[in-house]
Amino acid sequence: MPPRRRILLINGPNLNLLGLREPHIYGSATLADVESQAQVQAQELGFTLDTFQSNHEGAIVDRIQAAAGRGPLAKEGYTDADKVSAIVINPGGLTHTSVIVRDALLGVDIPFIEIHVSNVHAREPWRHHSYFSDKAVAVICGLGVYGYTAALDPLDLNALHTIPQ
Ligand SMILES: O=C1C[C@@](O)(C(=O)O)C[C@@H](O)[C@@H]1O
User: Which positions does the site annotation Transition state stabilizer cover (predicted)?
Assistant: First the structure.
């Protein structure tokens, strides 16, 4: 059987307001636009896409653990079928603060791509540091919401592990 490709797209705090918050920085596309475009792309490329957004750090940790079939959500109906082979994550402000989301990603050992809509390196100095970049397969920033499309591109996915059936 061919390897399964199931990708999890996570958006962190405040990204539910994409399209409304600071449009001069983040543009006018909404999170719904981003997720539906990503679903179209997934269908075209033949992988399953799960999407998740939360404003809560612990909820993101629980969802990452569930992506490996572990943690509290694993007891609530998430099964092995929900295991993913790669994660695309825009951690939002947690990028610059979150040891625990970093630890969650390292703990499940699922390769991930970090994406930011804005060019964080052209913004406030404290946005230049990420708790994720040194462990990410790739980091995409400053491409606007096209960054999500780039992250899900098969060229990037080919570089990632897949879960054998
Ligand atoms: O919430 C966000 C969004 C962001 O991750 C981006 O997509 O550009 C950049 C972060 O610094 C910020 O806190």
Answer: 21
Tell me how far apart the alpha carbons of residues 25 and 93 are, in angstroms, rounded to a whole number: 14
How does residue 78 score in pLDDT terms, banded at 50, 70 and 90? Answer: confident
Q: Which amino acid is at 143?
A: L
Residue 151 Cα to ligand 1 middle (Å): 16
The single-letter DSSP state of residue 105 is H
Q: Regarding predicted confidence, which is higher, 100 or 3?
A: 100
Q: Catalytic residue numbers?
A: 26, 116
Q: Is 63 in the pocket of ligand 1 (CB under 6 A)?
A: no
Domains of the chain with bracketed CATH: 6-158 (3.40.50.9100)
Q: Give the pLDDT band of residue 126 (cuts 50, 70, 90).
A: very high
